[in-house]
Amino acid sequence: MISRRLVGDYLVPAATLAGVLVAWEAATHALRVPRFVMPAPSAILAEGWDWRYRFLGHAWVTLYETLGGFALSIVVGVPLAVLIVYSPTLKNALYPLIVLAQSVPKIAIAPVLLLVLGHGEIPKVIVAFLVAFFPVVVDTATGLAATPPELLDLSRSYRASAFKTFLKVRLPMAMPFFFAGAKVAITLSVIGAVVGEFVGSDKGLGYVILSATSYWKTELAFSSMILLSVMAIVLFGAVALVERLVCPWLAPTGEE
Amino acid sequence: MIRLDGVTKTYRTRRGDLVRAVEDVTLHVEENEFVTLVGPSGCGKSTLLKLVAGLTPATHGAIRVRDTAVSEPFPDVGFVFQQPVLLPWRSVLDNVLFSVEMLGQQPRQYRKQAADLLELTGLGGFETKYPRELSGGMQQRVAICRALLPDPSLLLMDEPFGALDAMTREEMSLELLRIWEERRKTILFVTHSIPEAILLADRVVVMTPRPGRIARILEVGLPRPRTIESEFDPRFKAASDEVRGLIFARRVPAR
Question: What is the dihedral of CA B80, B83, B85, B90, to 10 degrees?
């Protein structure tokens, strides 16, 4: 049984990926595709390896911007969600603004933000935050509002304070929702940071991709993209891991 | 112990309409009495429990518990709902301790009592499980333990077995009676089920559809302790026929 799951979960996807890479490699050679149109995987890998030390610095900048934006989306998003759930007036006041902020294309705001805030990492952190905060607010608010009314009645019948009820009932109840939002937010943060770098920067993986394409160095652009994807996957996995640690009751029970 | 005198409760719906949930209810419940409220859906039975618990104020009339007017929640009450509404992140034991914790007590001092209660309800050995690892009936037992832990003198139960299958339901009714024989409390128990209402109660309060009024209060003369056999007693049949008659006679609108 275990070996069968191993085959299904790991071997089949790994073999598929390997097959795609081999076909890709073969096709670029057989069809003589120019390397600036579609480089072979081996060329991408070689270029990435050449760049390994320089990548470190750029990846660090992008990581820093991403994490900054993500942290900000939580620090701002969670209290916003609390305010929305607890005050109908604030909900009416804030919700349209939040939806408006979400509807404006972030790529359109990015140049303005950079104009106002200048260069450096801070404007990219802000762009990442703007892209990422919406799911945090909406999901956390949904979670906070999802507490069964009976539990609220129960707390009230025990004369527990609103704060105690929040801490012991509503907040933990909202945790799975919050993490659903946070998982979306972390991947959006990566996008936000790269968008910020596209608009104007001299550091970061977004900058590397942009400058590589303008010099027809497609291999370099591809290897940066792969590095970015790996970063996004690792960050997503980290959030999922924290979720597992914070909400152990959500973990599958195992064999019946 | 509980005195409801001419209690009326009017709600305003979201659309602004006034709905009368409970009308002119007068009911006196004795200490340690087991009273069931039975009636069709939407007859304000649940509202009545909330009124007694002080969770919502009455529009008219007076509610007194132990000669004190009820104007806000008071701690001597245990609540059990149709859904167990346990906290999924807490173990069974910590779920039972939730009540004393919310009451502002030290949960540590109640661990032994909580474990005893779980033992009493047949949940010994499940202390460290998560709620979702339990069946619906077991979860509801945990909810009952949670309500019993602070040892309230009044237990309000809102269709507590309504979400369970018929077999579990009957088992739980008898178990509740067993617990009640052991630890006497005043119980106000809302149900849809006529047999359940009669099997459990000293008195059955039959309510009319919205607005909920008391159609009749029936004394159940069946001897205690009651068992499955009680349902074969001719008095059981007579009582259930009477309740059924009261409920279905009113199905035809008077107006």
Answer: 100
Q: How many CA atoms lie within 13 A of B103 on its CB side?
A: 21
Three-state SS string over B92-135 comes to HHHHHHHHHHHCCCCHHHHHHHHHHHHHHCCCCCCCCCCHHHCC
Is 80 exceeded by the pLDDT of residue A4? no
Mutate which: B71, B102, B135, B142, vs A, most A CBs within 10 A: B102
The conformation of residue B91, written as its DSSP 8-state character, comes to -
* ipTM of this complex prediction, to 2 decimal places: 0.88
The pLDDT tens digits for A58-72 are 999 999 999 999 999
Count of CB atoms within 10 A of residue A204's CB? 28
Q: What is the radius of gyration, based on Cα positions, of chain A?
A: 23
Q: What are the strands, taking DSSP E only, across chain A? A: none
Closest CA in chain A for residue B104 = A160
Tokens of B91: 């173990």
Asked if B87 lies within 8 A of A156 by C-beta distance, the reply is no
Token pair, residue B51, equals 């009124």
First to last CA, chain A: 14
Record: contact B73-A156, CB cut-off 8 A: yes
| Residue A156 contacts B where some CB pair is shorter than 8 Å | yes
Mean pLDDT of A20-24: 93
Contacts of B128 in chain A (CB under 8 A): none
- DSSP-assigned letter for residue A159: T
Q: Which has the minimum average pLDDT: A26-40, B21-35, B240-254? A: B240-254
**Taking CB atoms and an 8 Å cutoff, what residues of chain A touch B81?**
150, 154
Mutate to test the interface with A, among B48, B85, B91 (most CBs of A within 10 A): B85
